[in-house]
Amino acid sequence: DIQMTQSPSSVSASVGDSVTITCQASQDIRTWLVWYQQKPGKAPKLLIYAASTLQSGVPSRFSGSGSGTDFTLTISSLQPDDFATYYCQQANTYPFTFGPGTTVDFK
Amino acid sequence: QVHLQESGPGLVKPSGTLSLTCAVSGGSISSTNWWSWVRQPPGKGLEWVGEVYHSGSTNYNPSVKGRVTISVDQSQNRFSLQLTSVTAADTAVYYCARDVAATDYRYFQYWGQGILVTVSS
Question: B99 and B9 in contact (C-beta within 8 Å)?
Fold first, then answer.
């Protein structure tokens, strides 16, 4: 299986801050990388697919980049609605695997 | 807008069989998508369980292979998950999701609200 790691595991930030989350795959997954946002008690919400394509309806303050094994999710100008847990997922090879998550909470 | 809704027992006895159904509305299960199950143990991360295509083709996570069956019912526009010989480690919120697959990308676009299944005697 492809192992996905994320860092940091948690980050404390304030409204207006810029936050960057990194995701690393244990082998080359090209750009088959997806980012989700999850809030407590809710299903994950699709943010970005193909490493950098913003899902329709997702605010432009979210952006993704990377290819191969190293990827980043950046939230520019953090908003109150953005405090949540973020997961990366590789869709290159079965079984699909997720990173352990990064929680963004209030500083 | 596609809507997915999980249903099934919230409590299953150890060594028993977990059976869940995902009803799809706002779209046809016969469309060119895969349909997946993803689970999340309480307080932990996400694990893909497996998927089914409308033709009945399936792919499963080796972590549950041999115990899992995912099937589709086109007439009812729904798909199902069966997991046998369950243990406490199978306790999780189970989500169903529409899995969009294309030449250059793949992602879980729509998700159900999730259903907590607890394995306990």
Answer: no
Closest to B79 in 3D by CA, of B103, B49, B119, B107: B49
Contacts of B105 in chain A (CB under 8 A): 31-32, 49-50, 53, 91
Query: What pLDDT does residue A98 have?
Result: 98
Please give the residue of chain B at the shortest CA–CA distance from A32.
B105
Give the number of A-B residue pairs with CB atoms closer than 8 Å: 60
pLDDT along chain A (107 residues), means of 10: 97 96 98 98 98 97 98 96 97 97 94
Nearest to B111 among A43, A53, A99 (CB): A43
Out of B108, B112, B113, the one facing A46 most closely (by C-beta) is B108
Nearest CA in chain B to A42: B113
Task: Say whether A68 sits in a helix, a strand or coil.
Answer: coil
Positions of chain B with pLDDT under 50: none
Both structure tokens of A14 = 């304030």
- DSSP for chain B? --EEEEES-SEE-TTS-EEEEEEEESS-TTSS-EEEEEEE-TTS--EEEEEEETTS-EEE-TTTTTTEEEEEEGGGTEEEEEE-S--GGG-EEEEEEEEEE-SS-EEEEEE---EEEEE--
Question: How far apart are the C-alpha atoms of B90 and A78, rounded to whole Å?
Answer: 36
Residue type, B22: C
Please tell me the distance in Å from B70's CA to the nearest CA on chain A.
15
